[in-house]
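Fig. S4 source data, part A: sequence.
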Amino acid sequence: MFKLSVLLFVIYIGCCVSSFTYRKDDVYTFRKDTTRGVFPFVGGYHVKVAGGGKDVKNDEYYVANYEFDHFIEQEQIDQYLFKGRIVRYLAVKYDTFEITDAYRLMPNTDQNNNNNDNTLYFITNNNLVTEYYNVNREHAVKNITEPYSKQITSLHMDWFLKQLYFNLVYGKFENDYFLVQKLYIRVDVNCGRNVGQWCPENKIPTYRYDDNQCVRNTGCVKPLPINCQKPNNVVCKQGFTKTGFPSHPNGCQIDYCFPSFLFTNQTAPSSFTPTQPTREEWARMRQQFQNNRRYY
């Protein structure tokens, strides 16, 4: 009887892949269903393959909801691209989309960014533009042009170039150039817990952003404001948020503009703000300072 109960429980919670035809690396868009009626049969999302051009069938498929470990701004869901699969749990009678990766459109103030080509690409750093759904179609170009670095002041360029290459883009070819019109960046980056650092009284902690927009410690420095450059008057465009820290080697404040949606706590819980150390961590850092004080 016990074995039968276990078997029935497994069958109840198990799931099977729906009849929807999908490939592991397909990219999808979501469209909110606004039909009036009884959920879950209406009110979910219409899913279809994105960016396949004429080579990929893009029929819509209805799902009641989605599952993902990170925050998705539902009011802006048309700005996302997703990877994942559609499943149907045997305990229910509707389909769910299990998201594995999420990308969001980077804000762009260029009014001439309409995309006429429905083909999704990714770019490698040797100026090769490859069709996402057909990696055998590579286009060697002389240069890659994009609107972001010209429009957005104080853009963190190491981070931006990391996003530009190997992420998802729409664009068009003009002679021997490729013009990026839409750039989608990963929103599910997890930096882990970044602990703030303890410094002696005459020094301050400094930090930097790495190319994954994660905060990294760069040690303690004695602040020398006289060596800092022009006053810090960074103003970010709509859709971007200013953030920064005292930096190495003089403790000067350096600010950057990052897409505002990256600051959502549920999206990047520790990307931008060092976590306050625990009492034990403070004690350990003070002891390390005492052990290495000859270097200060």
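Fig. S4 source data, part B ends here. The first helix runs from residue 2 to 13.
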